[in-house]
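Reply to dn_fold:

You asked what the input looked like. This is it:
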Amino acid sequence: MESSNQRPSTLERLEEVALELFTKRGFHATSMRNVADKVQVRPASLYHWFPSKQALLQSIMRRFLEGLTREVTRAIDRHSSPVSRLAAAVWVHVVYHGTHRRAAFVSDTEVRALEGEDAETIMRMRDSYEEIFRQIIADGIESGDFEVRDERVATYAILLQCTGVALWFRPDGPLTLPEIAEMHVEIVLNSLRVDVPVGGAAQILGERPEIGAPPELEVNRT
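and this is what came back:
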């Protein structure tokens, strides 16, 4: 068994390899032995960190959602109006998903594989994250900045649209990720009947939000 001072690097490697395999093969088609073989550790060693394959999946999803929620919260706290707060939230959501494409993909497509407490934990985190957007939209409706009949429907539509970036964005494409994020901000605000200024998202945000170093895996590969 690895010594305690090896644990962080080994744990990180386990999650990175699991993420790669879950993305390529799917959760159900990947075994703990597959992960162990690629990491070059004994299969029994995996259970030192994760009691089950589901626990490994939940850990990947939890790290992704923790990082996403932290970065969006930090960005919106720099703004006061519903318009600028939503712009910041959308910008960070798009950039984070485009930067962590594999983790975003697995977190979105494999959530049904979770059961029991693991599923409940992730669903609570997802609900809390959605509530950030719903509350901003509700505030904008109350202030008269946004026009939409139902803030929950608007929240679902906006998040679905912005999350899709993880499926199609490529770093070698014609547009940079920040440019794509700004376009999404403008699309979202236009859908809520906001009179977007000539300067677009850049003028609303003032400066692009900074996203800190990822707390989890490097998922920036094509």
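The two ends are 33 Å apart (CA to CA).
Hope that clears it up.
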